[in-house]
Amino acid sequence: MGTTIKVLSLNMWGVPFASKKIKQRSEHLIEHLMVSDYQIVGLQEVFTSWHAKLIQDGVKSIFGHSHWFRSGSLGSPGLLVLSRYPIVEIAFHPFALNGYPQRVAHGDWWAGKGVGLCRIDHPLATVDFYITHIHANYTHTGYDMYTGHRVSQMYCMAKYIARSCDSDAIIAVGDYNCKEDEVATEVFVEASGLTDSYRELHPDKINDPGYTNDTPECSWRADTSLATLCSNGTCKRIDYIFFNSTKLSCTDSSVVMGKIPGQTFSYSDHLGVSSTFVLKPPSTAVRVCKLSKSTAEGALECIHRSLAATHVDSTQKVVLWLCLTVVWCVVVVAAVLELLPAVVLVLVGSILAAAATAVFWYLVIFCRSESSKFSEAFDEMQILTRFAE
Fold first, then answer.
1. Quick check: 17 and 49 in contact, CB under 8 A?
2. What is the pTM (predicted TM-score) of this model?
3. Which residues share a beta bridge with 81?
4. C-alpha neighbours within 13 Å on the C-beta side of residue 50
5. Cys-Cys crosslink for 178: which of 91, 136, 154, 185, Cβ 3.0 to 4.6 Å?
6. Contact at 8 Å (CB) between 84 and 48?
7. In the chain, what percentage of residues exceed pLDDT 90?
8. Residue 72 has what pLDDT?
9. Positions marked active-site
10. What is the DSSP letter of 259?
């Protein structure tokens, strides 16, 4: 086993109060991992401590080393790494742009997403194992307000890998929430210099698409044919295992973890990806980490749209704050003139004051910060576009 590096990546669909049969599915995952030959496993959407502990304790006799990343305001980014070999170093890099706190149902901001690093002492080589869960797309038709966030996060991850990697064996796994032909994916591949392991061995996108989300193999989605799901654009390939192809060679890669044997349901609402690597002989090959002109321009356009949307949102919040303030002033005048019962005026005035204060602090703290971060990302992409080839 020490002559290869076999990796599994799986989104475990562990969203509290929303995901179904979390405990049962996790127990089946534990059974599968205990008899598998995976050496390193990267799981996403393990958001709660009890869920992480359940899996860690269940596989401890085989995967004796693990780490669950914590960084969110509520819960965690949901990233759990299991390894047969010692994890000698860990680090976490939060994303600067991470969604909106007022969109509680989306949850990405509250999870505190970013990219985790586990440096693993594998017998073949020290492995720099990166794991992430990029911001989700909640609008599958029309304009997606989070496109700019994903572009920024993917570039942020690529930069972090370039600056933190200290090994020839670089592997980056996760739910990237981006199709392979999206600008964000192109940004990551070009800026990181890493290779998509599945597509490396399965270059035919038409006959071997490698879908990992919203497929018939996922029992938690509509039970319909692959042809129907593909024709309406539902099927997606958004889960990846990337690697440093100048130092590693991928010998096998497949989509795995569909229906649970003997059960009517799947391990998750995603399929997993498994890839096996061997170390290449020493060479002078160097990873090329540079954006092309077209990719840089596409990224710049995405971030520019998001920056404009942020300015519109700020303007709307300013108008809302002014309206609340004016109405509050009217209530104060009514109180002075005793036009309404005191109890009604106090209640209404308190609600208006609280709402106006909340909007004001949202403007001061979040909108300004969000605008500044998008502006910084925009300036960065402008520079990249200027010097791209």
1. no
2. 0.87
3. 42, 67
4. 4
5. 185
6. no
7. 51
8. 65
9. 270
10. B
